[in-house]
Amino acid sequence: MEDINILGVSGVAFIVIICLLIGVIVKATSLANKWIPVICGVCGGALGALGMRFGAVGFPATDYFNAVAIGIVSGLGSVGCHEMVKQMTKEDNREDH
Question: Which one, of 78, 64, 68, lies nearest residue 13 by Cα?
């Protein structure tokens, strides 16, 4: 059986979770919701660089450029995951055609 760390999932999951929590905190403030993806992307990039610097287990990047890029995508992915769950659990008021 293959080790899941080969895929880099464990090293990136912490970025998604932390950025999701940051997004929830920002949503609770008076800041406009349009800034949440930007904040999560920037925080994800910073977390990617930190993950590279401190050797996060299973982190898939070997240089800082890729680490920041992976972090940004993971941060933006957290916004997408939140929206997906939100849309799937929302009552649909339209009639099915």
Answer: 78
Q: How many CB atoms lie within 10 A of CB 47?
A: 25
Domain boundaries along the sequence of the chain: 16-85
Q: Under 8 Å CB-to-CB from 24, ≥6 apart: which residues?
A: 82
pLDDT tens, position by position, 70-89: 899 989 988 888 888 888 88
* pTM > 0.90: no
Which regions of the chain are under pLDDT 50?
A: 1
Report the distance separating Cα 76 and Cα 59, nearest Å.
17
Listed in sequence order, the DSSP H helices in 5-63 are: 9-27, 36-53
